[in-house]
Amino acid sequence: MSQAPCTVEEHRARVLAGVRPLDAVDVALLDALGLALTEDVVAGVSLPGFDNSAMDGYAVRGADVEQTPVTLPVVGEIGAGQATVREIAPGEAAKIMTGAPIPAGADTVVPYEWTDRGAAEVRIEQTPEPAQHVRPAGDDVRAGDKILEAGTVLGPRQVGLLASVGRATVRARPRPRVAIVSTGSELREPGAELGEDSIYDGNSYLLAAAVQRAGATPVRVGIVPDEPGAFLTTLREHLPEVDLVVTSGGVSQGDFDVVKEALRHEGVWFGPVAMQPGKPQGFGVLDGVPVVTLPGNSVSSYISFEVFVLPAIRTLLGKDPVARPLLDARLTKGMTSPQGRRQFMRGEVGYDAQGRYVVPVGGPGSHLIGALSDANALIVVPEEVTHLGQGDRVQVLVLDTDF
């Protein structure tokens, strides 16, 4: 008796039930790019930390330049990080560079452009506003302010802010290490010679790149032949050093489906999911490590990664939402879809005066990796829909974007 297919949501829930966020660790600042904070960050210093100049010019007392033109003696020069003049008296000026501290007694900066740029004395031609061109201490951030919240995914701007307040490390969930295992005696490494019945192993490179794009660290195990014992031995060798395992191939109904043969007695679920492509799927937890088994055809494998593995990786990372959002688009030409299966059709999303549109790319075949390479989105057709016409509204997953 054949097994009834489960839904996409049911299988995703099965996978996510076996995955939990990794424990937080202290991470060096640059290594934390793309990771989710597990702490609120409070500024230990103010930004700026002292009143400083916003321009190259002269630090003066505003009262001394209310009437211009006026000539003042220059008592020294203040560079950023070289505060040789710490105070000026009434009627004096000090040359000052952008970012340098305002000396005591001064409250305004006159830019070079309003002066004759004198060295011993300076003639000021234009009257500044009170406190003009002065950045007050704490104008941006005050010590004690909460500057980032737990759950924030760190981008370049956040890393810059953390460095600016003196943080060298942060508490964050580390990058998961994800083992990628390709199965198939017909597979060869790129660059090797092909036999009459052999093919290059594109899947492990495809999946490793997808893992890296998702923010995790790929551990490409390499090719395992169609021998259940060898597969299981290889898998167990890598389990202690990884947080997740992704396999491709060997999960269908064939006589040489090595993954299914090796893991069916290890508590791993195998069965059909009501989707196209990607019907044969599997998931289990082996020695405490989640194992997601994907079909072997390239398109099926990649789409299954997007639908099931990407949410698992984001869960390990503590990122929310875990699944890529569905967006609305206008279909540019008609297409059909099988009854009872959710189809993930390759597409190319673009924008025109009417908004977002999507063009179907290639056919439905699960081996058409050339068309997959041309696509930047997946058109998601519900199980009950069998026909869509030009101009119909559809939902799309836009690939290779942050969310």
Shape: elongated
Rg, please? 31 Å
What is the number of strand segments? 27
**CATH-wise, what's the superfamily of the largest domain?**
MoaB/Mog-like domain
Topology (elements, then pairings):
Elements: H1 8-17, E1 25-28, E2 41-42, E3 52-53, E4 57-60, E5 70-78, E6 93-96, E7 108-111, E8 121-124, E9 134-135, E10 146-148, H2 156-164, E11 169-172, E12 177-183, E13 187-188, E14 199-200, H3 203-213, E15 217-224, H4 228-238, E16 244-248, H5 258-263, E17 269-272, E18 275-276, E19 280-286, E20 289-294, H6 298-317, E21 327-331, E22 335-336, E23 342-352, E24 355-360, H7 369-374, E25 377-381, E26 387-388, E27 393-398
Parallel strand pairs: 5-6, 12-15, 12-16, 13-14, 16-20, 18-23, 21-24
Antiparallel strand pairs: 1-11, 2-10, 3-9, 4-6, 4-7, 5-8, 17-19, 19-20, 21-27, 22-26, 23-24, 23-25, 25-27
Helix pairs in contact: 1-6, 3-6
Offer a quick outline of the entry.
The protein is of the alpha/beta class. The chain has helices spanning 8-17, 156-164, 203-213, 228-238, 258-263, 298-317, 369-374; strands at residues 25-28, 41-42, 52-53, 57-60, 70-78, 93-96, 108-111, 121-124, 134-135, 146-148, 169-172, 177-183, 187-188, 199-200, 217-224, 244-248, 269-272, 275-276, 280-286, 289-294, 327-331, 335-336, 342-352, 355-360, 377-381, 387-388, 393-398. The protein has four domains: 8-23 and 174-317, Molybdenum Cofactor Biosythetic Enzyme, Chain A; 25-44 and 144-172, Molybdopterin biosynthesis moea protein, domain 2, CATH 3.90.105.10; 52-135, Molybdopterin biosynthesis moeA protein, domain 3; 327-398, Beta-clip, CATH 2.40.340.10.
